[in-house]
Design brief:
Chain B: It is a multi-pass membrane protein. The complex is a heterodimer of chains A (139) and B (90). Chain A is mostly helical. Chain A is 60% helix and 0% strand. Chain A has 3 helices and no strands. In chain A, helix 2 runs antiparallel to helix 3. Classes of the chains: A mainly alpha (139), B mainly alpha (90).
């Protein structure tokens, strides 16, 4: 019975890993690739560690596997955020089908600070124009 | 039954490793390569877990902990290096 659970957990984990790597191979630009790899990759590693914990059925092993899972759960989003931020500042090209780049107007390229567009921003940042809906729409 | 499953899982993880490696070679920019290194590290963590089941040696989990830690530190270090003036791709 426990062998069956282990087998299912391992196969699910490996499927998530393969999904993540197919995503990293096929998707068009850096943020989408990161989106595929970090979430699915972390899920795959967590499933595999759950399989290990079930297989050994020991308190010490369970604690270690749990520690690995918690560690991956904490660090994967941080690493993804940090790399995505660095890639954005490097100016890696986005996919040509990108609809909207919300950060473009609000990020200061020099100081790497984010402005919401509602506070008085320095000259290096051009705040986005919040245009009032004029009468042109009604005509 | 578990032996067959473990072999299948080894094969799937190897295919995943291969795809990640292709992206590591092709990756047009350095952040792409760092992302694929991150994925490769997490695949290797899975590999080590499966190997621990295969051989029945639970001490191998320490290796997995260390690999996860190094991968995180690598990613953060690379990101800091890139933000503090790596090569610009305009």
């Amino acid at each position: 019975m426990s062998e069956l659970i282990v087998a299912i957990l391992l196969l699910t984990g490996a499927s998530f890993m393969i999904l993540a790597s197919v995503g990293i191979l096929r998707l068009p630009d850096l943020p989408t690739r990161m989106h595929a790899s970090t979430k699915a990759g972390a899920m795959g590693a967590m499933m595999t560690m759950a399989g290990v914990a079930v297989y050994f059925a020991d308190v010490v092993v369970f604690t270690r596997a749990f520690a690995i899972v918690i560690f991956i759960l904490i660090t994967a989003p941080i690493a993804a955020h940090v790399i995505g931020r660095a890639g954005y500042f490097l100016g890696t090209p986005l996919w040509e089908g990108t609809v909207k780049d919300e950060l473009k107007d609000n990020y200061d390229d020099k100081t790497h600070k984010l402005y919401s567009g509602f506070e008085p921003a320095p000259e290096s940042v051009i705040p986005p124009k919040h245009e009032k809906r004029s009468e042109d729409d009604e005509d | 039954m578990l032996d067959v499953v473990i072999n299948i899982v080894y094969f799937m993880l190897s295919v995943a490793l291969l795809f990640g490696f292709i992206r590591l070679i092709k990756g047009p920019s350095l952040p792409d390569r760092v992302v694929s290194l991150e994925l490769i590290a997490s695949i290797v963590v899975g590999y080590v877990g499966v190997h621990a089941i295969d051989t029945g040696v639970p001490s191998l989990l320490d290796v997995a902990i260390v690999i996860a830690l190094t991968a995180f530190l690598t990613a953060v270090g690379f990101a800091r290096f890139l933000e503090r003036g790596g090569p610009k791709s305009e």
